[in-house]
Each structure stands twice: as structure tokens, then as C-alpha cells.
Write the C-alpha cells for this entry.
Amino acid sequence: LEFSLRLQRLLKNKQGMELVLDNCRSYEGKIEGLTDEFEELEFLSTINVGLTSVANLPKLNKLKKLELSDNRISGGLEVLAEKCPNLTHLNLSGNKIKDLGTIEPLKKLENLKSLDLFNCEVTNLNDYRENVFKLLPQLTYLDGYDRDDKEAPDSDAEGYVEGLDDEEEDEDGM
């Protein structure tokens, strides 16, 4: 199914805060049909859609989680800080990211906590993890692990069930 056709159907349905476009074909490697009407989106997934650029992304102030894995993105990430300033989770696994300079614009994403770069050439660089954490000090998790190599909690549960741990502790304390 083509991007814009699926988006038109979704707009008619006014479906929630999530939009999953995995395995749709993008037009000329760009995001198309996604407009400011989707400003309430908190989660956008465009896995394996043939993207080479995120330049056409509309302003999505509420977007927290962006899945861009298994595309052909090799740069242009400065757009993300401008269009999605509140991103907390970004998955760029399986893209054509070769060096640290490509991810440097992500410094401007002050709320970015989790970044995934699995299967990107950049992960083969010497001291890759150490250097990414230096470059992006706001990060808590890189490729699913923190600075001390502790595994991140299940990110889906973490994003949608925040505060659950606190409630459990209160119950135990009684």
C-alpha cells in the first residue's frame, strides 16, 4: 500500500496517537502525505519503507518515539531536532550511517534518552559506544544498553507504563 493512500484512510478514521507505516513504499525515498494534521502523534514507525531522507517530515511536537530502522538514511538528521524536538526514542538501526558526524545533529534533541544504531557502519568505529555517549550526553541508552552496559528495560513498556514501578513500591511498603 502506498504511503499517502494509507495516510488518507487513517485521517478519515482519526486513529490514536500511533502511526505504523512499516513496509509501505516511500515515494523517491521521502516521507510523503504526512502533514501537520498528524500533530498529535506520539509514536511513528516507518520501518523498511525505502527512506533516504527525513526532510519532508512535518512538525510533530508531541512525537516521542520514532522508528526509522531498515531504510537507506545516510544523513540529514538535523531535521529531527527542528521537526520533532521532544523525541525520547530514536531507532536508526540498519541505515547507512557511517560516522559520528552524521549523528552529531542529534545533540539538539535534549530529551533523547534512547538511540539504536544496530547494523549501521558507525558501530564498527573504535570506541564507538564511548564516543557516542560523549557526543550525546543526554542519552541513557545506546543500542539497548546504558553507559555501564546494563540492559534497558523493555522500551515499549517503559514508554507507556511510566510510573508503574512507583505504584508497586508503594504497595510493597504497606
User: Anything to note?
Assistant: Residues 165 and 171 are 10 Å apart (CA to CA).
